[in-house]
Amino acid sequence: LFGQVTSLDYSICLLDAGGHTQRTESAPFDDDVSALAQARTEVSGSPIVELWKGERLLARLFRDPPKGPVQ
Fold first, then answer.
1. Strand 21-29 vs strand 48-53: parallel, antiparallel, or unpaired?
2. In this structure, how many other beta carbons lie within 10 angstroms of the beta carbon of residue 42?
3. Is residue 43 within 8 Å of residue 28, measured between CB atoms?
4. DSSP readout, 6-46?
5. Which one of 17, 34, 49, 68 is separated from 42 by 20 to 30 angstroms, measured CA to CA?
6. Residue 1's pLDDT is what?
7. Which residues contact 51 (CB under 8 A, 6 or more apart)?
8. DSSP 3
9. Which secondary-structure segment (H or E) carries 58?
């Protein structure tokens, strides 16, 4: 039991084009790669998708390339 991690909690945040959160989904994944694969499936339905692991931003994905500086 100790030292074994079977899954980690991640948050996938769906944002509108202005960067405002529209929906957040929390889910357990075995690793970052699995969580990122799921986040990539969400980018077709939302302009911006962020993948969080706790309080750490792992990835920010854009449906269309950003025009100008990314904040």
1. unpaired
2. 19
3. no
4. --EEEEEEEE-TTS-EEEEEEEEESSHHHHHHHHHHHTTTS
5. 68
6. 42
7. 10, 11, 12, 13, 35, 36, 39, 57, 58, 59, 60, 61
8. T
9. strand 56-62
CB contact at 8 A, 29 and 10: yes
Could you tell me the two tokens for 53?
């692991």
Does the predicted TM-score (pTM) go above 0.70? yes
Could you give the CA distance from residue 51 to residue 35 in angstroms, rounded to a whole number?
Answer: 8
List the pLDDT tens digit at each of the 71 positions of the chain: 445 545 678 999 999 999 999 999 999 999 999 999 999 999 888 999 999 999 999 999 999 876 766 65
- Look up residue 67 and give its two tokens: 């025009």
